[in-house]
Amino acid sequence: MSTEKECPPHDWESGNWGVIIGVSKCKQCGKVSHSMDFPKWVTRTIFAMALLFVSLDTVHAKRIKLDPRLIRTDELTCLKLNLYHEARGEDLNGMMFVLDVVMARMVSPQYPNRVCKVVWQTHRCPRGRCGEFSWTTDNISDNLVTLGTWKYVSDVTTAYIESGAWKNIKPSILYYRVATGDPSVDCSPQNRDWFCRALNPEFKAGAHVFWKQK
Question: Is residue 136 within 8 Å of 120, Cβ to Cβ?
Answer without folding.
Answer: yes
